[in-house]
What does this fold into?
Amino acid sequence: MTISELLQYCMAKPGAEQSVHSDWKATQIKVEDVLFAMVKEVEGRPAASLKTSPELAELLRQQHSDVRPSRHLNKAHWSTVYLDGSLPDSQLFIWSMLLSTGGKCAVGR
It folds into this structure.
């Protein structure tokens, strides 16, 4: 998955807003003014920092080598996911949907 594909998917969600955080050179995605994703290149690879429950973050980190604690965010809630790695696109889409709807919906592609 590319950064462009992830941004396109996220921005198709109702209420999604996109802005650039210039200090971190990252694109922020918010729903109802709540940040749920930051997208940028990390170590030359497309990546997204996604917010979730500490339990889900730990589970995904154990299962996928391309899911790691975010470097500059609360590591209990934020994970950096390399978009070109071991986590299938469909799982990223479901994760994104869960985050953007407060866990009320789990629809993949």
In short: The chain has one domain: 3-100. The beta strands are 16-21, 26-31, 34-42, 45-51, 67-69, 78-82. The helical segments are 3-11, 54-63, 89-100.
